[in-house]
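PROTEIN DESIGN WORKSHEET
SECTION A - STRUCTURE
LENGTH: 236
TOKENS:
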């Protein structure tokens, strides 16, 4: 079997002496959406940080396009094609929307105006609000800025940690539609979601994490149909 496009394999590690992740494996293919769900404190954000190189691994490996990238820094991973939207502090609130997007293009030496146009096509409201400080935007609009910023490097993998946190159900649906659009362009999407049911609905694959371990891994559809998953993690 060939390697997944992105895989964090058997990741073990934490912030200090105690491990948070235990043999945790996550993966996603190009053009697919993989969703990570699980209770608060399960290690979802920690696992994302590990894949992005923000957490030293004691064991395990991260591979992108079949190449080990475990020793690369986050900035080197961005150059290798990874985009990451962290759970918190993911926009510069005092900078304008346009400046936020420009910051996203920090590694690019070429003309990135085409990419900014693509981001504005995807999120038209950002074009309207381009000269406004991002801090003045609504929660859902700010999440669009954060996703747009990550797209500015033209990543092959987009990692999103709770992109719909704190937004209304309608805005959540809109964001999920946009994420589906991004995946349809061939980008691999690895995202953490607290709206587990809705997220698994659009997911090709889902990972249920508990206490830093893989508890269930299957297609989104199969997880949604699994009585135990439903009872324990999806509120019945
Ligand atoms: N910077 C840190 N230093 C030390 N421990 C941390 C740090 N960040 C998280 N932890 C601990 O690691 C464990 C996993 O936290 P993590 O944030 O990865 O969980 P999560 O699944 O993302 O939770 P949530 O659903 O609340 O976002 C928790 O016990 C948490 O207290
Ligand atoms: Mg988290």
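SECTION B - SEQUENCE
RESIDUE ASSIGNMENT:
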């Amino acid at each position: 079997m060939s390697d997944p496009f992105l895989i964090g394999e058997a990741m073990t590690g934490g912030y200090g002496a105690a491990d948070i992740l235990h043999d945790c494996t996550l993966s996603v293919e190009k053009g697919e959406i993989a969703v990570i769900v699980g209770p608060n404190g399960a290690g979802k954000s920690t696992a994302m940080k590990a894949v992005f190189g923000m957490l030293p691994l004691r064991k395990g490996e991260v591979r992108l396009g079949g190449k080990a990238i475990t020793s690369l820094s986050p900035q080197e991973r961005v150059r290798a094609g990874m985009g990451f939207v962290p759970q918190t502090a993911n926009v510069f609130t005092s900078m304008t929307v346009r400046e936020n997007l420009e910051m996203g293009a920090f590694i690019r030496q070429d003309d990135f105006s085409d990419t900014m146009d693509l981001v504005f096509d995807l999120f038209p409201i950002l074009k309207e609000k381009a000269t406004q400080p991002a801090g003045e935007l609504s929660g859902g609009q700010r999440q669009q800025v954060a996703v747009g910023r990550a797209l500015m490097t033209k990543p092959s993998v987009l990692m999103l940690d709770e992109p719909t946190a704190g937004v209304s159900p309608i805005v959540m649906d809109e964001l999920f539609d946009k994420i589906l659009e991004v995946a349809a362009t061939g980008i691999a999407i690895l995202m953490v979601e607290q709206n587990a049911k809705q997220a698994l609905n659009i997911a090709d694959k889902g990972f249920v994490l508990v206490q830093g371990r893989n508890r269930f891994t299957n297609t989104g559809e199969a997880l949604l149909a699994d009585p135990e998953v439903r009872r324990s993690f999806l509120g019945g």
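SECTION C - NOTES
Residues 1-81+196-236 form a domain with the Rossmann fold fold (CATH 3.40.50.300).
The mean pLDDT is 96.
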